[in-house]
Amino acid sequence: MSKRFLRGSRSSKSAVSLRHFYCSSYWKTCLRPCREVVLPPQSTYWYISWETCSAWPKYDVVTVTLKHKQRVNGCTVRQGPWGRCMGSDCGPGGSQSRAVWCAHVDGWTTLHTNCDQVQRPSNQRNCFRVCDWHKDLYDWKLGAWNACVPVSARTFGALRSFTCSGGEEGIQTREVGCMLKSDGSPAEDAICEYFEPKPRLEQACLIPCPQDCVVSEYSPWTSCSKTCGTGLRNRVRSVLVPPVFGGALCPNLTEFQSCKPGPCTGPEGMYSLRVGPWNPCALPQTRTARQVKRRKGKGQGLRERTGVKDPETRELIQKKRTRNRLNRQESPFWDIEVGYQTRDVICIHRNGSAVGRNLCTPRDLPLTVQSCVLPKDCQVTDWAEWSPCSKTCVEAESPRGNRTRSRQVLQFPVGEGAECPPLEEWESCEPLGEGVPPCATYTWRTTEWSDCRVDSLLSQQDRRRSNLTGLCGGGLQTREVYCVQANAELLKYLSDLREKDKASHPVENKLCQGPIPNRSQLCQIPCPIDCEVSPWGAWGPCTFENCDDQAAKKGFKLRRRRITNEPTGGPGNCPHLVEAVPCDEPSCYDWQLVSLDQCLPDDGKECGPGTRLAQAQCVNSNGEAVDRNLCSSSPPLEPVPCEVPCSRDCVLSDWTSWSTCSQTCSSKTIEGKQMRTRSILAYNAGEGGALCPNSSSLQEVRNCNEHACTVYHWQTGPWGPCTEDPSASSLNASMGVRGGQGSCSLGMQTRKVICVRVNVGQVPPKKCPDGPRPNTVRPCQLPCKKDCIMTPFSDWTPCPVSCDAAGNAVKRKQSRKRLIIQLPSNGGQDCPEVLEEDRDCEVPKSCPGFRWKTHKWRKCQLVPWFLRQSSAGAQETCGPGLQTRAVSCRQLDGTQADISECLRFAKAMPTITQRCQLPCQDDCQLTNWSKFSSCTADCVGVRTRKRALIGRSKKKDKCKNTQMYPLSETQYCPCDKYNAQPVGNWSDCILPEGGRVESVLGMKVQGDVKECGQGYRYQAMVCYDQDNRLVETLRCNSHGYIEEACIIPCPSDCKLSEWSNWSRCSKSCGSGVKVRSKWLREKPYNGGRPCPKLDHINQAQVYEVVPCQSDCNQYVWVAEPWSVWKVSNVDLKENCGEGVQTRKVRCMLNTIDGPSESVEDYLCDPEEMPLGARESRLPCPEDCVLNDWGPWSRCSLPCTTTNSRVRMAYTLRSPSVGRQCPDTTDHEPCGLNHNCFNYFYNITDWSTCQLSPNAVCGSGIKTRMLDCVRSDGKSVDIKFCQELNLEKKWQMNISCVVECPVNCQLSEWSAWSECSQTCGLEGKMWRQRSVVQASQGDGRPCPTQMEQWKPCPVRPCYRWQYSPWSECRVESVVCGHGMRYRNLSCFVSDGSGDGEGSLVDEELCSSLELAIDGDKRIILKEPCTLPCPGECYLMEWSDWSSCVSICVKGAGVDFGSVQVRSRAVLAQEPENLQLCPDQEWESQPCTGGECYEYKWFSSVNSTRPFVWCQRSDGLNVTGGCPAINPPVDNSSCSPPCLMPKSFCSEDGICMCEEGFTEVLSPTGQLDQCAPIPILEIPTAGDKKGDVKTSRAINPTLPTTILPGRTGRTWYLQPYGPDGKLKMWVYGVAAGAFVLLIFIVSMIYLACSYCAKVHRSLKAQESDANGTAVWVGQNAHEMIYTCPDCQELTQTTTSSSS
Known about the structure:
Elements: E1 9-10, E2 16-17, E3 44-48, E4 64-66, E5 71-72, E6 91-97, E7 100-104, E8 109-110, E9 124-129, E10 138-142, E11 149-150, E12 167-173, E13 176-180, E14 186-187, H1 189-193, E15 202-208, E16 214-216, E17 229-236, E18 239-241, E19 254-262, E20 271-275, H2 287-304, H3 311-327, E21 338-342, E22 345-349, E23 354-355, E24 369-373, E25 379-380, E26 401-406, E27 409-411, E28 424-429, E29 442-446, E30 473-478, E31 481-485, H4 488-496, E32 506-507, E33 520-525, E34 532-533, E35 543-544, E36 555-560, E37 563-565, E38 578-583, E39 589-596, E40 600-601, E41 608-612, E42 614-620, E43 640-644, E44 651-652, E45 672-677, E46 680-682, E47 699-704, E48 712-716, E49 723-724, H5 729-739, E50 745-750, E51 753-757, E52 761-763, E53 777-782, E54 789-790, E55 813-817, E56 820-822, E57 836-840, E58 850-854, E59 861-862, H6 865-868, E60 879-884, E61 887-891, H7 899-905, E62 913-918, E63 942-946, E64 968-972, E65 978-983, E66 1013-1025, E67 1030-1031, E68 1041-1048, E69 1055-1056, E70 1070-1082, E71 1101-1110, E72 1115-1119, E73 1126-1127, ...
């Protein structure tokens, strides 16, 4: 809802009448008048939803609620803000609706029936439904902006006073409407508003303030114009800023003052000869007739001489004619006619009137007639046709090109004729016609990636740099990037419809835009996985080589190992897995003892000798159980004899297992042995029992591993290359057709397999078993052939045409190149060797260029005699004249060229006319000067040149005067002394050019570019001559530089030690960790590779920790047999009783063949250590003897005390009658963590990322391990967990990536740039490089220096420069029209801008274009006027003022910059002032003007104060300061205010400055200014009670403007001369107090009356308030005020009010 305030007046019917209303500024124009409506009292009314103020006049019905509960209804307007137009069809026929509801006057919504249904507004109407496709049919039509109207002109009421400050705010308006594009007819705005908002109708603008003319201060007074009598003095000023925007005009620039140097002693010179200007050039009347007659005469003479027949003579004559024709200027471009011009010479009086010439002093009169060239304007042809558009293709980004047209010169300007207009013009254009092809677009292409290389990632100290074979892991690969034409194939197809090329030829890289593709990337060389095998297994039984063929009777014992880690390339890369030993009596199947039954005495006795039956199974050579029938050929195992001791017999234990064989094989010197033992468990009775054997019978030894130490195995060589398999050719053919790659097929690989005897070498194959013999042939996949792919050759580089000093073309070469996109491999077609070609450029016959050729001057042409014969002293055949010459255009080799070429490319055209002098008889004639003689020595000798008198001049005395006509000239020989000295700073340290500059056609990464070492730095040398002028450095025998060796320090990478050995696994059983470390040896410097993150505790160490697994059975306790009983209570008779047994327990290394060697005890688990001693009772004879307890059974899980474990024993000797055996079963309850354990898996942490030893970075593996942990926390063998079949849900290995240490890769240095200055001391050349590959990981960071500079050779800066204008020269007279001249000289400087430079020979500037500061119009003379005595005249133009911005300082308002120059008037005679010309000024725009402020300043000196206007740069000016009343000068007071501290007010009264009071004389005049007494005011914060003095000066006034100058100021001094307050001060204080009491009383009375009126209005429902309110949709009453809405007409006033 928007706010709107409706103002209305009540009628007699208690209704409100609304008339016109107006809304401006933020609210859009609401200019529709509503008809007067009557508002009958009503409590409810219809309400329509409202939107913005700009839209509300469009409502059909306006409903307004008044405070006195009446309704406004019926203000009819045409349109309203309806909802969106809806409908099925586009265009007219849609419908739109709006919300209408009934509301109570109190604001709440009520039923529709409470409102008058007749007056209900319509809530639906037809509309135009806009669709998206209407956007192409309709658009906003924008009118032009109207003139900027001041805001003050649009406000109502009286115009307020306005002070312009920088600019006056204004408003511009325009008309905006929706239109139909096809015919421009108007349409509803709602259609266009559907697509975009309506453009603004108004915009702010600025009307600049008037800017007055600003002039400088006056110059000093000139000297008096006369030396005696009455003259004038002048002082002048110049215009600094012209008047703009209607500002005040410039004041007079000249001020005059009469002067009287003294009385004249003689008569004054009253007359002067005055030379007038030359009249226009004209032809003499008889000239044409004489020319015709002369030409006729020449023609007859030529015809008479046409009888020459000799061809050579004829050719010479023809050449002479041609030369003469050129010299006669008969060129179509020049039509030079020599005429004459005259001027007047008159005698004038000092008052400016002309008098008779006889009154002027007799003297030689100047020339009044002279030869001249008739002026002819430049004539050109009509414009030629426009050239084709430079844009011949379609391109979206820059669719337009240029086209040019030219015209030719028909007649060059001659004399003072008008110069030629531009001969060429251009305009933008678009390619026309159908079928215009698209423009060529360019894109980047890349070659194939190179092979992956790891060596570029190695650090400096890496030992693998010396041997790069086998490196793997992360690496770097590179490729070239080149630019091609992206749509070349399309354009080629469009142009000739031929087949597209396979690859586009490269073009210059600068044609490609956008980011350059990566030229390097990380890559991965898969690291080969080494084969890992298990330890050797035990030797198997002697078996046949082939059990299916047992005829050979040849047997082998085999032992095997298995692959624990599959290698890359399959198991063929593993070492041999089978070793064989020949043996005798082989068998494929044999019986294997499983167990022995209990000993059974013979003949059914209870004790005594017996046998134990062997329980056996049939096994093959691998130990696998097979059918028993296969062992039928082998004898079954025999029963084993045994003995069951009787009650009085000796009891022995069972034999222990056989020990590990002491040797793996046998020979003549060594043989393997095994041992087993048994011990005495009970002694026999003294009589009748079997005796115990001696100690030697308690031990048995047998031979083992009796096979010879001759071990054989098959050894394989590496697989050969994959070659084509002839047997598979047909299959390959079908695969090739099917796969579309005929070069990819199946092949085969072979390898060598030999039989090797260990420690001997190769033996015949029959020595090795055939069964495990490896394959010698395997199939393989032949790699696909890859041919070399190249780009076509690029276009030939352009041939630069350069010329040497002699103008001959220098031979150059042009080149082209091609790039390898794909290298050949696998037998593909090789690349050609030639990648770059060059050839000699065609040398043009002549260097391109044009020059003007001047021909000989024609004869000096005098003014016709009949025109000058009346002049005094004139002679017919001599005098001043004019001569002309021809000019033609030539190429540099001298051949003729079109004149237009020289106009475009050559230097300024030479002059074709010059003044000349034909000597008269009385004149002295001399030859030209000879050349100077040669110098014998520099700086010390002299050289001379001579000339001589000719003709009659030799006899004339005046010609012999050598002072007027010197015949020789002498000058010192040039002094070629030169001084060289360094200048500027040293350059960067630059390495010698080691490689090529980056190619224009391809970019590639160079890898480790040399970036350090010895280089050179340069300092420029400057050469001066003996006059301290800059010359070429070659004069000082210098090539322009001083070189000095310098060092760019090489980066040194962080150096660490090698890895230490891995520590031992931290656990002897289960999973632990092992550690290795590196130590910091040297920190990085000079940008070397940074160190990896060091250990936070010890900053010098890097750790690597990996998990490790220790076999819990690696070390085992081995207990020897128990010793013989040592009975403590020996019954010598029975040898029994309590005793002790001991045994030795050792920790041994466990192998697959059993415990092998003793190790330290700490390596074995101390908890598992068997007992080394035991106490027990040695059974007596006839006691029961049991064997040792067997192992405890395992407790069943879960571990509870209700469960128990058991161990068993059996009876070895039965007791005698009456004696009992102890229990053979022992029970023990199961206790958790005592004898019963739970087991679970424990997973270790991940290791660090492990790489292959040959890898630097890239893909690796993180590992972790499973540990079996007992419930008491002890790690145990993994088999305990495996037996429980616990779930394994963990992944043990994951891949990981170690970030590669990629060194920063830089491009090569670019070519050196052009010199930053073409000459001078400060020129620099730059070259850049860019980052191709940013550093990654711990790679070497990028250096900070990405650009280098070195000084350019110093070259002198030559330039053409004007000399100052000469004085105005008028020939031999006092005044009049003359000429002034200046020269064009060659200057040299060092380019620093300090000083103007030094004058040098013009030859040094000969190569420069003839121009001054870019202006090619060389003006060396111009007319001038030398004023005559007494004449009032205009001075010469002042210099151009500095560039000034027309602006408002600090407001950001700028109307452009301007500079101005002016001519002031100078007067010499007071009587001639009325004849003075008007002063002149002219301005021109400029750039970079300074924005100045102007302020009033004033000063008071001892005599009189004065004021002035000053510009912000400190320059005193007139004009520009604000147009307020400036401080008044003392000169307006009479008498002047000369007293100290006084000034003249604007009313012309002398007053005192602030701080002083006036003391008047009896006559009322100011007598003196007395200081006001100082008032001492103690400061509040000063504890010491210091006082500070304060004069009664207003501190708010600016210090630059004295008080009292801007208006009348009254000084009522409150203190008397004695320092006490005056009486009137007390009176004023009392009056102020009374006034305050009065004001308070009046306010109280007024408020009391207001309160009464308010209560009265509240009691009765007053209708005096006509404020309009609107009721919103939320039924709340809202009061709106629109302060900008103003009533256009007065509202009617009801009679009740």
